[in-house]
Amino acid sequence: MRRHLYIISNASSGASGQKRLNTVTDMLRTAGAEVESVTTTSHGQGRDYAHLAASSGEFDMVIAAGGDGTVHDVASGLIGTHCPLGIIPMGTANVFARELGLDFSPDALASTLISGPTRTIAVGRVNEAPFLFVAGLGFDAAAVRYFEEGNHRWFGIGGFIPPVLRSLISAPDTPLEITIDGTGHTAHWVIVTRVKHYAANILLVPEANLEDNKLHVILFSGSGIWVRMRQLSALLTGMLKFDPGVTMISCHHLTIKADLDVPVQIDGEAKGCLPLELGIYPQRLEVVCPSGSVPN
Fold first, then answer.
1. Reported pTM
2. Which residues pair with 5 in a beta bridge?
C-alpha cells in the first residue's frame, strides 16, 4: 500500500473534475494514506513541484490531477526517478489516462493509486524535452491553438468542434520536410505518437506499446479542405491506412522542418516550433496502472 502521496492539481480544472479530485482524496485518506497537495497556475509549475517531491524521498507517489497538460508537466519532473506517476483525470480528452486503462470512477481511481501495479515506460523526446504520447504539426496543432485561444475548454470534448472547423477553413497547408531514420519524406500534416489512441479515444496505431522504443509517424499529404475532410473521415472510421494521401511509418528518429512557421502541439498543448528532432528520451518513467493492465 502506498501511504505517502503528493497531489499536484490544475487550478483551471472545472467543477466536475474538482469534485472527482475531492472524492478521491477523501477515499485515499480514509484508506489510511497521508496526502499532501499543491495547485498549479501555469505551465511548468507541475514539473518543478514533481521534481522537488521526488527528490525529497518523502513520497511513495506523485499524482497529477488534471488533463493531459498537467500530466505532461508532472511526468516531466518524475522521469528518471524511482517515484511513480499516478493520475486523477480531470481534463477534456485525458488521452494518456485512457491509454493506461484507468477507470475514471473515484473508487477505482483510489484503489489503483493505493495498490495498483507500476509500469516502466519509454518516453518520447522532442528536441531536448520529453513528451508522453503525441506531437502534431499542421492541421491538428492549429485546431489545438484555436481551442486554447477561444477558451472552448468549458464545453468538454465538444469544444473541439469549432476549432476543428476553423482549422479546416483557415489553417495553411505548409509543406513539411521530414527525415525518418535517414529517409526523406514530404507531408502537410504530421502526427507522431507513442500510443494506440488519438484525441477522443480514436484507435490510430493498434501496435503501439508504451514499453518499446518506437515512434509511430502518420504523414498526411495533399492540401485543401476536401482532402483534409476525406482524411479526417478515414481517421474517425479506422480506414486511415487506405487513404491515398496517408503514410504510416514506425521509426526511432525523425526530424521535421519547413520554410514557414507551422503550428505545433505536444501532448495536446499548443507549444514548440520548428525545426523539431524527435526520438526516445534517454530515461524512463514509472506509472501506476490498474490491476491487470500491465503487459506480460
1. 0.92
2. 35, 61
Using pLDDT thresholds of 50, 70 and 90, give the confidence band for residue 11: confident
pLDDT tens digit sequence for 162-174: 877 888 888 788 9
CA distance 191 to 122: 18
Q: Give the residue among 251, 123, 250, 265 at the shortest CA–CA distance from 189.
A: 265
CA proximity to 287, closest of 50, 38, 43, 56: 50
Specify the DSSP element, H or E, that contains 162: helix 161-170
Dump pLDDT digits (tens) for 118-177. 999 999 999 999 999 999 999 999 988 887 776 655 545 556 678 778 888 887 889 999
Distance between CA atoms of 186 and 292, rounded to whole angstroms? 41
What domains are defined for the chain?
Answer: 4-116 (3.40.50.10330), 129-280 (2.60.200.40)
Which pLDDT does position 158 carry in this prediction?
A: 57
